[in-house]
Every structure is written in C-alpha cells, then in structure tokens.
Structure prediction request, 1380 residues.
Amino acid sequence: MIISMRKNATKEEIEHVCERIREFGFKVHSIEGEERVVIGAVGVGDVTPCLEMLEATPGVESAVRISAPYKFVSREFKAERTRIAVNGVEIGGDEFVVMAGPCSVESAQQIMETAEAVAGAGAKILRGGAFKPRTSPYDFQGLELEGLQLLAQAREATGLAIVTEVLSERDVERVAEYANIIQVGARNMQNYALLKALGKCPRPVLLKRGMSSTIKELLMSAEYLTAHGNPNVMLCERGIRTFETATRNTCDLSAVAVLNELTHLPVIVDPSHATGKQSLVPAVSRAAVAIGADGLLVEVHPCPEKAFSDGPQSLNLEQFRSMMRDLKPYLRLWKETRVAAAATA
Amino acid sequence: MIISMRKNATKEEIEHVCERIREFGFKVHSIEGEERVVIGAVGVGDVTPCLEMLEATPGVESAVRISAPYKFVSREFKAERTRIAVNGVEIGGDEFVVMAGPCSVESAQQIMETAEAVAGAGAKILRGGAFKPRTSPYDFQGLELEGLQLLAQAREATGLAIVTEVLSERDVERVAEYANIIQVGARNMQNYALLKALGKCPRPVLLKRGMSSTIKELLMSAEYLTAHGNPNVMLCERGIRTFETATRNTCDLSAVAVLNELTHLPVIVDPSHATGKQSLVPAVSRAAVAIGADGLLVEVHPCPEKAFSDGPQSLNLEQFRSMMRDLKPYLRLWKETRVAAAATA
Amino acid sequence: MIISMRKNATKEEIEHVCERIREFGFKVHSIEGEERVVIGAVGVGDVTPCLEMLEATPGVESAVRISAPYKFVSREFKAERTRIAVNGVEIGGDEFVVMAGPCSVESAQQIMETAEAVAGAGAKILRGGAFKPRTSPYDFQGLELEGLQLLAQAREATGLAIVTEVLSERDVERVAEYANIIQVGARNMQNYALLKALGKCPRPVLLKRGMSSTIKELLMSAEYLTAHGNPNVMLCERGIRTFETATRNTCDLSAVAVLNELTHLPVIVDPSHATGKQSLVPAVSRAAVAIGADGLLVEVHPCPEKAFSDGPQSLNLEQFRSMMRDLKPYLRLWKETRVAAAATA
Amino acid sequence: MIISMRKNATKEEIEHVCERIREFGFKVHSIEGEERVVIGAVGVGDVTPCLEMLEATPGVESAVRISAPYKFVSREFKAERTRIAVNGVEIGGDEFVVMAGPCSVESAQQIMETAEAVAGAGAKILRGGAFKPRTSPYDFQGLELEGLQLLAQAREATGLAIVTEVLSERDVERVAEYANIIQVGARNMQNYALLKALGKCPRPVLLKRGMSSTIKELLMSAEYLTAHGNPNVMLCERGIRTFETATRNTCDLSAVAVLNELTHLPVIVDPSHATGKQSLVPAVSRAAVAIGADGLLVEVHPCPEKAFSDGPQSLNLEQFRSMMRDLKPYLRLWKETRVAAAATA
Prediction:
C-alpha cells in the first residue's frame, strides 16, 4: 500500500497513521517529499480492511493498493492454463470449444433439432435456458424442470454436454443433476449467496461478466467460487454497457487479451449478447478466435423469428453452419498458436 | 408498436409481418412512405414477445415500443403518491424521512451509540448491515443473525424502525422477522429469484438501483415486486457507474425528478454510496432535498476510521448532527412544496 | 510519484529505473516489500514526462502521480474564490447569477422579447448562440455576425451582459468585440488551438465540460486558459454521457461539490442540456442552488415549439418566470450560506 | 418520423401537430390506438428541424426518426466500397494497409530510424505527430513545422506516405503541403470549424472517433467532410471511454462490423490508443484483421521508454516486426475474404 498524506498533515496525524498500519501487521516506510509525506506499507495478508481504515483517517489524501486483491485465479499463483474436462471435451486446452443452442428451451422438437444441427456443424456443448432471467415479470420465465429434462434428452441423443443457467441458490442441486456446466448470468455475477452455493457444487461454472463489471470485479467473483471450493471456472465476456446504442452491448474483446495476462482460467466470448444482432455474430466470432479466446457461446434457433426470447441475435441453423465453415481456417491458426505457446512455456 | 421495414423489403415480407402481428392479437395500420413502409400495431396486451419476434423477422429494420413496459408502478396506473407506513413513520408522505446508521453492524456498543445519536439528531429509521455483499471473499461478511438481534435491541431502545439488507432468498423470512424494511442492494436489483421471494413478504422493500441499471430497469424490478404481491416499494438512487473517478459513483440526482414523473413510489437518495466521500455527503443531501426526494439513506459511524467497511464515506456522529442542523431550512421549504402540491392535486 | 516494480523485476531493472528518475531531477527512495520493490520519487517540477517514461520501462508495473497535474486553478494555489466582474455583475461572489436566453439567436424580435422577459424575471446575463455547433451539416448553423449584432442590441436595450459561443479560432476577435463572456462548448473543451487563442483574449470564458470529460480534464482545460494568460474562467457542468437514456445527458451535480473542493473558479450549472427536457429544468435548478453552484445557464424561448434548435429543453417565458419565483427562497438560503462561509474563511 | 401523442392529448393538440408537420412538407397518417394516437409522417427532406419542433409541442410524448440522418456516407447512397489512393497505396481496396510510426516526431534520427524499420516490416504509411493535442499545457506540444519537414524527409527516403494530425484550422494548408493524409484526432471529431476547412482540402482525411462518440455521430462528422467537398474519408476506431480501467480505452471492435454494414468508407483500427498497453497491441491487431477492418494505425518507437509521449503503448522496432510476421497468415485470410466478397458483389 502507498499512503499519500495531505499537504498540511500534522506530525501527529502522520504518526497516528503509521501506528494504525502497524496494528494491521504491516511494516512502514515513510518518504518526506517537498510538498507532502508519502508512506509505504509492506507485508503479507489482505490489505483491504487496512486501506478502508486509512481512507477514513484524518490527514490521509489517498491510499492505494499495489498488489492484486485476488489470489487463486491469478497467473502469479498458477502459471499454466486451467483445463476443464467436461464429458470428453476440454475447455482451456488445445481445442477451441463452441457452445451453441437456443436462448430458451421451448419444446422437445426445438431443442432436439437445434442440438442435432449444432453437433453436426462442430459444436461440442449445447446451451439452452430452463430458468430465464427476464427484465419484465410478464415475459416467458422458462420451462424450468421440464427444460432441464429436455436438455438431458438432447445430450443423450447427440453426445453434446450441457450448459444451462441457474438463477437461485435453491435450484443449484437440481440444475447440477442435469447440467455439465452451470452458467451464472451477467445479472448474478455479484450474487454472492449464489456464488457461495456454487463454490460447493461439483460442476464447472461458466461465469458471465456483469454488464457493468470491471475485469477486476469479474476476477473477484471467480475468486469467490475458487475460495469456496470450486476451481473449475470459465469466464465469459458478453458485452458491457456503454453509451453506444448501435449494438445491444459493447463487446470488450480486448478484455480477452487482458484476462489471458492476468488469469489462468479459460475465457469464452458470447457474440450474441455482446452485439444483440445476428448479422454481426460471425464477424465478432472470427475476432474472438483471433484474439485468443478459448471458446464461443452462440445463440442458435431453428426459427429465430418464432423464438420466445433473443430472436434478433440468434443465428438460424443454416447461418450457424455457414459461420462454422468460415471459422475453420481461423481455428487452424488458433490451434497452431496455442500448441506453439504450450511448447515454449 | 411501430415497425419500420427495410427500404428494399418485398411485398411478401410486408404481408408476412402484418400477419404475424395479427396472430399476436394486434391491429395493423400500414403507411407507405417515399422510401419505405412503416407499420403501426395497436391493441391491448404485452407487446414484448411480439417486438422480439419482429426484430428477428426478415425485412424488418426496427420495431419500437410506444407504451411503457411497466404497469402497477406507473403514474398512469395510480396518480397519487404511495405512502408507506413503518413503525409510526410515513415514507412518501408529508415528512422527509432520514435513515441513518453504519454500513455494517459491528458490535452492541457501536450500533447502540449510533442509534441514539442519529435518533437524537432527527433520523427516524436506523440502517445497518447484518449480511454484507463484499467484492472480495476475504472481506468481513457481516455478523448475520447476531447483527439482526443487535438491530432489534437498538430499535427497542430508541424507537427507530430498522432497514437492513437481505442477500439470499433463504434469509428472507429470517430478516423479515427482525427488520421493518428490507433492503435489496444494487448488485441484486435484477436477482429475480430474490425479488419474487420478496414479492410474497409482508415487509416494505427499499430497492436500490443497480449501478448500471437504467431508470426503466429499476421500475421493471419494482414491477416484479408489485406483480408478485408487494406494493410497498421505495426506490433508491445510490449513484451509477460512469467514466468519472473523482467520486465512487455518479449521483444521478435528476433521476429523482424523472421518477417523480413516471411513478407514484417514494424515492430515497443515498449520498454516501453515490459519492464515496464523507466531505461531499452534506452538499448532495441538500440537493436531494431540493430536487424532491422523499428521504435520505446516510452512512454514519461513531469512528469512521475504525469502521469494518465504507469508512471513507461515513459521517461521524458530530458531522451527522451538523448536517441535520444545516438541512433544517431546506426541509422547511420541502414541506411547504409538498403540502402545496398535495392541495392542488 | 510512486513506482511499483513487477514481482520478478531484476536488480538491474530496479537500478535502471532509479537512474532514469534521477535524470529527470527527482530524488529516489526505494522500499523493499515481501513481494516487490516500490520506489518513491519526490521533488519539484512536472512529473508527466517522467511518468510516461516509467510506464514504458522494463520491470515497471505501474507508476502513479501523487500531486495534481494542474496548478493555477487549484485551491492549493489560491484559497479564496475567484470573482469575475462582468458589466456590473459578479460571478463567483455573493450573488447567485442566472444566465438565460435562447439556444440560437433567430431574429431581432425573438432575442429582444426573450431578453426583456428574462431581465424582468431576474436574470443578469443573456445567452444566445450566433455560431451553432450542430451534429448534422444540414442543420441551422446560426446567424453568425448578424446574431452577434442582435445580441449587442439586446444588451443595449436591457442592460444584460452577453454570453455567446465561439466555434473557431478565427472568430475569437470578432466574438470578443460583441460578447461580455465567451463560451467554449462541450465539444470544444479539448480544442487546444481554441483554448490557446482564448488564453490571450481579454474576455472571461465560460468553459463547458466535455460530455465525456472527467473533472480533472475539465480543470486541465481551464489550466490551458490560465497558463496562456486568461485567469477569468468559469466552469460549467452540463451533463455527461452515460448509459442512461431517460435524460439527454446525466447531470453530474456532485461535480459541483467536488469542484468547490478542488478549485477557486466559479461553477455554473446548465440544467437544459443536462436533462434535455423542459419539465425537469426547475427541479435540477433548485438542486444546483442547494449544492452550491455559482449560477445557472438556462435555455428560454418565447415559443419553444418554433425554436430552430433545442426546443424540447427550453422553458417558455412564463415557465421561466415561474421557476425564478420558486427559486427565491432557495436563493435566500444560498446567500446566507455563502456569506457565512466568507465570514469564517 | 413517428410521433406518439400523450395518452390524454386533446383533439386540438393532435390536429395542431398534424398541421405543423404539413407545414414542414411531410404527409401525415394518423393511427388511433386503444390508448393513444400515433402519427406517421413521410416525405423527402431533412426531418431534424421537424423532430425538434415536435418534441417541444404540447401533447407530444415522443418523436422518432425512421431514416438515417446521413446520406453521402451511407451504403444506401453508394453500395461499393470507397477506395482511397494515396501515393501508390489503396486504402479500402484489396490490400490491408498498415500505418505505423511514433506518437510524436522527436528528431531526424528517431523518425528516420522508425520509418526505415516499419517500411522494412511491411507498413505502407508512416504516422507521426508534429502538432500534439496534450491534456496538460505543460506537456510537449510537438515540433510543429520542423516535424512536418522531418516527415517529408522520411517519405523521400523510404517511399512511405505520411499521415499526420492537424489541430487548428489555421494549419490546414500548411499540413496539407506536407502530409498525404490528414488526421483529425478524437478530441476534434466534432470541431466543426476544422471539419469544414478540411472539406475544402484536397487531401484524404483520417477521422478518429471521439472517445465518447456514437457510431452515428462519427458518420455525421464524416458527412460534414463529404458535404463540404471531401469524399476521401477513412474512419478510425481508437477505443471509447467506458467504466473499465484495465485498458486506457475500450476498443469497440464490433463497431468495425457495424460500420461495414452502414457505410462504404474504409475503417482503420488504432490498437495503441484503444488499449494503452504495448503487450495488448498484437492480439487486438489480429482481431482487427479478422473482423474486417481495412487497416491499422500503430504506434512504434525505437525506444519507447524515451518517447516524449505514449511510450507505454508503443511497440519497439523488434516488437513491430514480430507482430507483422505473426499477422501474415491472418492477412492472407483477410485477402481471400475480401476478394471473394468483391467477386460476388
């Protein structure tokens, strides 16, 4: 921590600050500048409570953290990439993984038709919502248990693993029974009760970035999962909220590159929610591959205009097949880069 | 709804769109412009599913909602202000209501000392967190049940009503046993499982605006509460996330004026979280009174530099007393305006 | 400056950093923590070039400035408020100053009618655009010289001082001939060529905050004006761009309180651009008075629906009169506070 | 335009609105819904003044534009891509164009060394600032005329074309004498005086997106240039301002895909300003190629830690060479896609 005292801080205030820092178990070094005193505090242990104390202490102008507030999820803690094995597929490994399917599970026919099509086109994991977080209480809220059962049937028929969202702590066990990967939606990224419950759950978690969450906050929420017992976390960039309205959200693709520097966890991109517009999904998917994501989460529906939700951003089956064809040469480059990086590491 | 077709939309596409709209039960009026066809759709019933369908239908450029997506919380549904009676205090009525207290309940002594001081200075409701949503899993998470019990003791001693946050559906009943008002924090504004649980709860809810939620989304979350059975909702502006870093958040004070036009629900301002800085709290509080809020939610601590959380934005007891003194002439103007408005309504 | 080295920085890298800092004329203090080395650099002189150098130097994780990058505009440089005398009115002094008038000067009749009405209601300064910055090249661009002349006639008739915008360096002299205060619009806040030209101009400047400029950047632009010779600067909060769309911009009212801590320059609030909606202007104006602004800049038009620009956010003459009446008791409180503060300072 | 009347609008108000619209030369179609009247207005001509009028007219709830406010720059106006020939290079054509060089021109040696290195690595255009827009008046402001002369010498020696920024209308002619492409910086995107001056200039313009400008506003500023006579405009995405602080700005890469749908103008990506961090530049550059940009604008410096400005985000010469090598297979895919698209168009 670096504590910058106010210009007019008294000697007593400075001494008081130093004492308080020592009470927290840190060592103190103070530097007398021309204009003000700056204090460095070093040592081991969490600095957050000490920082908060300092910012509320008379004479202090600012108190800044030097080290990152997360541990288990950082590259410094673990240099090699985390690989998460799910139903014979590995996320974070040497293959780029495409997860695809409808926003909501709507019927046996819809989910089965989609599952077969996306499997045929090269997807490895089926997405589909059984519990839907909707802005309006009057909108379709999902098929719930029936939706989970339909997903399980689709898995049986196609061999695809299943990723689906959980909205409530009460449903964690039930969803874990059916799903291979449990999704935490953007609106729940800081629902700490849910994160704690998922920390104790034996399934990997796909953690979506909140629509106005910083990269650091995303990593802190991943830290909640690991600190409570679940190290199998994949992060998902799905667009952030900005002033721009031409797209539903602003896809923060460079966050993928930032995350690859800061953490060993796999990073997935959701081009459907990020753009909100079907016509933009293939271009953003290409960019996600090129920038080094570990996978995609794409909305696909047999007939987007009849979708119960998110139709405008869903590819139809033929559009998905076409996108997967076009991605092939990019995926080849992706794999070369990934294998080369592993060899030099 | 107004549907604008693409310039090059075919006759078949236009006809298809009109048919689909009629299937949803709306009447269709189409307008042929020089450049494109625009279709108006009118009728009763929720337009959301129809809008989503349209945006995914070939030939459609955009589909826009005309009416608001919320009902019960709107001024059009109910013109007179909602007044919420709590323990002899009325929120939304003819008195401006100050809620004050520490971020976290830390000890019997801390909460009792604060309660007595804020009651003495004119606060009517005591705030204090027993369950704390913290960005880091390593930070203090609250005294939980013990915190609730200490709040209840403080109420008994001072007569102040209690507002405290609930983080988990599982705790709703337990918190409702102790609290007069249940707070939903900014991070949980779109935790729909929690909102549904609180819809069935007999206690009024203080719903904080998410840090990147629009005013419309805030009203939709309030609509969840009312649609699920709980009409006693007060909204809370606590700052939104923007690019500015001089303050912890950006206090969207004009949102109070906007909400007063759109809804009959009371609006509370939290100057502590909005600014993150103790020295700014009195000025923002004055502005909140002047712009027509119904109350304040202020963080107060006997010794901010020893607070377990949010010290930098907490007033100490003397600072709170001083602020309450300075607010008095503004509160007199507030009351005159409120009573005059009620007389002409 | 505080420089935090990477965990794995070598001894050579640390030594190299220390040497480079000394080359810039600063003294170096280094602190060895458990995990990394932190270096403090103190001395006089601008640290910006040194900071940029450091962030590009191997082994450095981050380099942070401790002192503010502006000088002349800071409270530390000059504690007492700047008072700007214009045509018998003082901005930043013991009277709250209302500037009002149309967005654009449109005709002799329009500006004269408005000038007389706002003067009668208590405004001291007439606003009106002769050069208009418009998003579209096809929109009305202002009456230019004729507009300036009409403003001058209105001043003669009413005694009101004139504030009007300049868009181009080439027009600075011409505008200065007619205007008492020259306005720099939000889009030009970082038009440094224009700021330099205005630095040499003998007229006070009203500097509007850019729609996505931080408070610090606003102060840096004010520093351009003062550093180039013009100390008579008033700052103007006119709303910032955020994700919220219910208002045209988000009025950052707490910026007024922040600025009152950081600078001695007067601060004006423009409730018209900040909200974009006439019905919200009186409430935001009350809040601006209460939070401690020095004045208002309000759009007023005899017939807003016929205005060439900004009709939706303009008050008509009667609405302006009514607002000024309602503000009176708030202005009385404002003056009491201001005079009391001056007495204790 | 679609005008939605308030629920309680009177017959007189509706009739008044229809009349006003007809005065502006549009035809009126009104639709009576269950709850309110909606009016459609069609015709040719600019709708902006009519829209502003309507929003200020009694009884109107909202007035929405259907058609885009720009013309010359739209795909609807001109379907084929604009190709801009500069010194034997074509931007917007069948080759991806890399522009590279230092933030500021600092010395003959620096610019010559950089020019030779980037030319050797495959760049076609040399960037370098002679006039620098700096947040602080105390920072290096550029070598001005001397900088322009050094750029011209570098062009002579290497054959690279030159792109450099102009800050002031007064300098347009002087800069046009030396530069092949004139850059408008992000802070000047809405400096309309400058845009008008450049509209009459015979050089192509590289127009950078303002840091908080929407895609629509960027296109409107391009429309200023074309409407005033200069059709040779390339757009540049350089990151927008958001709440995220891990990167200097947030690179809105999907804006490239959006622009490719809306306009025929070439789109350049600046990964240096977008991220502010050298280590992220290669990944973002790959993504820019994959998403379909027409070129890159990259900061390169022989010794970033000694750069007068923007060192942290500059590649050194070896890093630039390495990035260009790694981009090769992506550029091959880019070209295949571009040629195939041209063949089917």
